[in-house]
Each structure stands twice: as structure tokens, then as C-alpha cells.
Amino acid sequence: MLQILIIGRGGQGAQTAGNLLARAFYEEGQQVQTFATYGGARRGTPVISSLRVDDKPIRLRCNIETASAILCFDDSLLDDNLLHSANNTTKILVNSSRTKEAFASLGDYQIMTVDGKGIAKRNDMGKVVNSALLGAFVAILGQPKIDSTCRIVEAMAPVKHQQNVASCREGFQQMLNCS
Hints:
The protein is α/β, with parallel strands linked by helices. Helices cover about 35% and strands about 20% of the residues. It has six helices and six strands. It has a six-stranded mixed β-sheet with strand order 2-3-1-4-5-6, covered by helices on one side. α1 packs across α4. The protein is globular, with a radius of gyration of 15 Å.
């Protein structure tokens, strides 16, 4: 079973990214369980989207204790509290213009970085980074397929459909080039 945590600050799109990822997995025939935790339920406070994905029905009804993968929308949230949900096999993707070496002091974790803000800006998305981060995250997970993910992103985007898809594909390609 794949257990995923997506953490961001209210208003950054972490909840939306979690919902889009869940839909992409579901479209590919996977069983999906998703739930959210809101900090102060206001803009700027930490929010977590949790997903479980499996090829058989998911019966667990508890918080994720050790994640298979973590997507962190804001590098200021990458702290001991979040890392308690990780181990040395957890794939962690951080939205940051810094390199992964900048996070080496945190310990023996598989941390990768992607500049979601830069991708969003290049694709006329302003500060909206969730499509770029979702594409990059799908690349490090190896699933769901980027085409399934982009179909969901395009269908669910309220505006700028093509720009969202372009951001998603660029994030995906950047992570493939880093591997």
C-alpha cells in the first residue's frame, strides 16, 4: 500500500493537489482513500492531505504513521514534526529553489527538490504551484501515469487549463531529468 502525505499552508493548493492525485490513481483503477487535516482552518496555517493507494480495498481508518512519500509545498514546513512520518525509504519532494544538498543536515532522508514557483511563473500560473508539484511528484512516485494526471488537472482546473497542464508536464520532466 502506498501512503502519501501532502503538506502545505492553507491557500497553497495542497488539498487540491491531494484530491487531483487521488482522482488520477482512481482513474487508473486503484483503490484510494483520502482525508485531510486542517491546522487553524485558515489561510497560511499548515494543512495535510493524506492518501492511501492500493490495488485492493483499503480497510485502515487511522492516520498515516510512516509515509511512503511526502510532498512538501513549503520548505519551512520540512521540520522534525513532519520528518517523524518519514524514514530513510520515504521519498520526499520539497518545493524549493534550493538544491537537495541544502537539506542534508536534516538526516538520512531521500529529499528531492523542485522549483515549483519557477515552473509556475514560466507557465503563466503566477504563484499557483500545485500543478507543477503534482507533475514532479508523479515522476518520483512512478505512478500514476503523467497522461492520466494531466487529464485530471485539465478537467479540474477552474481556469488556465493549458497552463496547468504545461506546468504539470514541466514538473514531471524536471524530476525525470534529475534522476
